Amino acid sequence: MITNIQKNFKGRILSMTLVSYSLFSACGSVPESAIEPIKIDGSSTVFPITELVLKSYKREAGNQSIKELKIEGEFSGTGGGFKKFCAGETDISAASRPISHEEMAACRGNKISYIELPIAFDAITIVVHPDNSWTETLTIDQLKTLWEPAAENQVTQWNQVDDSYPNRPLTLYGPDKLSGTYDYFTKAIVGDIGASRQDYVNNEDDKVLVQGVSQDPNAIGYFGYGYYKEHQDKLKAVAVDSGNGGILPSPDTVENEEYSPLSRPLFLYVNAKRAQENPALEVFVEYYLDKAPELVAEADYIPLPEDAYHIAKVHLQRFDVGSVFQGSPQVGLTISDLMRQPANF
C-alpha cells in the first residue's frame, strides 16, 4: 500500500525543490537573540506524538540556546486550540480534524495565516470494559442508535442496542464538544458535526475517559487509537462493521483502507508569520516532521508515507498558507486519498 502511494507521488516529489538541512546545522544558524518561546495547544489525541517529539528535541538539539528553548504546551482540544490559535495566542495548533469554516473566518479576521501539515493517521477506537463478553462488533447503525441525539435518556440499556445483549444499564464516555474527535465521530456515525446525545460522561482528557471505561463493566466509549493501545490491558476494542464485517482498528487495517469510516488524519497548523519571525519555530516544526515517521509509530498512531512528510516540509519552507480541505472533516478519507489532495493551498 505505502509503496504504491509513494510511486504515485514520485513525479510530483521530483518536481519540487526541497531545501533541507540537518537539525544541528539549522540550530547553529539561529542566533540566541532570535529565540522566542513556542506556544502549542490543541488536540489531546495528537498530544502523545507531540510529547515524544518534545522529549526527543530536548535530548538531541545540539545548540544549547535551542536546547533550553521554552516550549509552552497545553492541550485543550482541537476546538479550544483553534480558538487560541486564530486569536494569535499560540504558534502551533495540533488538530484531529481540518480547520473549520468558522475557524478559518476567525483566523482571517485576525489576519492569522496558517500552514496546514498532516502528520499522521488515527483510528477512532470503540472500547468497552474487558468483562463485557457480549459486544464484539457493532455496526454503523448500532453506533448511531447509541449516540444520536434521539437516544438521549431513551437508549439506556444494552439490550436496546441489540436484543441479544443483556438487560444491563449503559454508561457512555466520550470527548467533549471542543474535541476534534467529537466532531469527526458525530459526522461519521450520526451524519452531522456535533449531532450527539449529551447524557454521557465527557472530558477533554482522553486519559479520564480511559479510566472511566476501564472501571465500569457497563461502559462504552470512544477516543484515539493511541490511548487504547497504551491501555489495552484494561480495555477491549470493539470491531466496527461498515458493511463488510467487523474490522478492528490497527495500523494494517488503516493502511489497507479497511477500518472505515473511523480512520482520519491528524494535523499541525503553524502560524506562518510567527514562523518567519521566529527562526526557532521553523526549526522545531522541521524537526517534528523529520521525526514523525518514527515517533508517530512509537505513540501507536499510523505514520504517513515518507513522501507526505517531504511535501509538508516543502509547504513549510515555502510558507504555503491555507487549507486543502473544505472546512469540514472528510469522512472515510484514506491515506491514499490524503496523498491525492491538491498540492496548492
Structure at a glance:
With about 350 residues, this protein is of the alpha/beta class.
Number of helical regions: 16
Structural class: alpha/beta
Q: Averaged pLDDT, please?
A: 87
Order of helices and strands: HHHEHHEHEHEEEHEHEHEHEEHEHHHH
Uncertain residue ranges: 1-29
* Spatial shape: globular
As a percent range, the share of strand residues is 15-25%
CA distance, first residue to last residue? 26 Å
Total DSSP E strands: 12
Main sheet summary: 7 strands, mixed
Give the fraction of residues assigned to helices: 25-40%
Output the radius of gyration.
Answer: 20 Å
Polypeptide structure, described:
The chain is of the alpha/beta class. It is built from 16 helices and 12 strands. It has helices at residues 2-8, 10-14, 23-28, 47-60, 64-67, 78-86, 101-109, 140-147, 180-190, 206-214, 225-230, 251-255, 272-277, 279-298, 306-318, 335-339, and strands at 38-42, 71-73, 92-95, 114-123, 125-128, 137-139, 171-174, 201-202, 219-223, 236-241, 246-247, 263-271. The model is unreliable at 1-29 (pLDDT under 50).
Supply the key terms.
seven-stranded mixed beta sheet; alpha/beta; disordered N terminus; 40% helix; 345 residues; five-stranded mixed beta sheet
List the helices and strands and how they pair.
Elements: H1 2-8, H2 10-14, H3 23-28, E1 38-42, H4 47-60, H5 64-67, E2 71-73, H6 78-86, E3 92-95, H7 101-109, E4 114-123, E5 125-128, E6 137-139, H8 140-147, E7 171-174, H9 180-190, E8 201-202, H10 206-214, E9 219-223, H11 225-230, E10 236-241, E11 246-247, H12 251-255, E12 263-271, H13 272-277, H14 279-298, H15 306-318, H16 335-339
Parallel strand pairs: 1-2, 1-3, 6-10, 7-8, 7-9
Antiparallel strand pairs: 3-12, 4-12, 5-9, 5-10, 10-11
